Structures are given as C-alpha cells and as structure tokens.
Amino acid sequence: MFDHVSIGVADIARSKKFYDATLTPRGFSCLSVGDGSLGYGGEAVQLWLGAAKKPVKADIDSGLHFCFAAKDRAAVDAFHAAALAAGGRDNGKPGLRADYGPKYYAAFAIDPDGYRLEAYCGK
User: Fold this and answer.
1) Is the pLDDT of residue 1 over 80?
2) In a 10 Å sphere around its CB, with 0-12 CB exposed, 13-18 middle and 19+ buried, how is residue 51 labelled?
3) For residue range 40-95, what is the model confidence (pLDDT) as tens digits?
4) Cβ 75 vs Cβ 66: under 8 Å
5) I need a surface site. Which of 1, 65, 97, 118 has the fewest CB within 10 A?
6) Which of the four CATH numbers 3.90.1150.10, 1.10.10.10, 3.10.180.10, 1.10.3720.10 does domain 5-52+64-121 have?
C-alpha cells in the first residue's frame, strides 16, 4: 500500500547512527544521503528521515509506531539488540506475542526522537 514513509528528526547525524545500526541487521541500508535527509531501504528507499525544526512530539500513548518486517526471529533479536546499543530504549523485549497470533514474534524499541519501532516475524 505505501511506497514510503517520511519522518522528521531533531538530529540527522544521531539518527543516521541509530538507523544504520538498527536496520543493517534487517538487510536495509542508507541508500540516499542528502542535505538534511536520509533514505533507507533494500532495493529502493522506503523510509525517509528529514531534519526537522519541529519533529512530531513523541507520545507513547498515541498508538503511532513503525513496524519493520524481519526475515526470521534472529533478525528481530538483532534489531532489538542493535537499537539498544545505538541509544534506543527498550519498549518490549523479543518474544512471542500470543495476543497477536501464535507465531507473532516481535521486539519493540524507541528511537532517539521518541518514535516507537517494532521488528516482526511471523514464522
């Protein structure tokens, strides 16, 4: 359905370090570096980060989060570990989420700007 998603960040250099570390285990990389913007994806950019004077304020209760599909459970685990090592905060350790489905394996983290992130595998 979506071609890409764009989010504003307060510090583009800090975000690059974080997203390079967390998306690499998932097989994504920074495909575009511009003046105040970064584009991440596999074959094409699907996540744009842009330096913003007023990024959307983080609100843990808003329900807003971004979920990255993972090829297997090891990639979910690697995502979570990398997110924490790169300055993110834990928002749910890797594991099965039976409420979402019998094979729903996910981990949750919060990036340096407060965006809630998830990595998910259904195997």
Assistant:
1) no
2) middle
3) 999 999 999 999 988 888 888 888 899 998 999 999 999 999 999 999 999 999 99
4) no
5) 1
6) 3.10.180.10
Sheet holding 37-41, edge to edge: 5-9, 45-51, 37-41, 29-34
Tens-place pLDDT, residues 2-51 = 899 999 999 999 999 999 999 987 889 999 999 999 999 999 999 999 99
User: What ranges make up the beta strands (E) of 57-99?
Assistant: 66-69, 89-96
Amino acid symbol at 122: G
pTM of the full structure: 0.89
Q: What is the DSSP letter of 52?
A: -
Q: At 102, is the secondary structure helix, strand, or coil?
A: coil
Report the distance separating Cα 94 and Cα 71, nearest Å: 14
CA 3 centroid distance within chain: 16
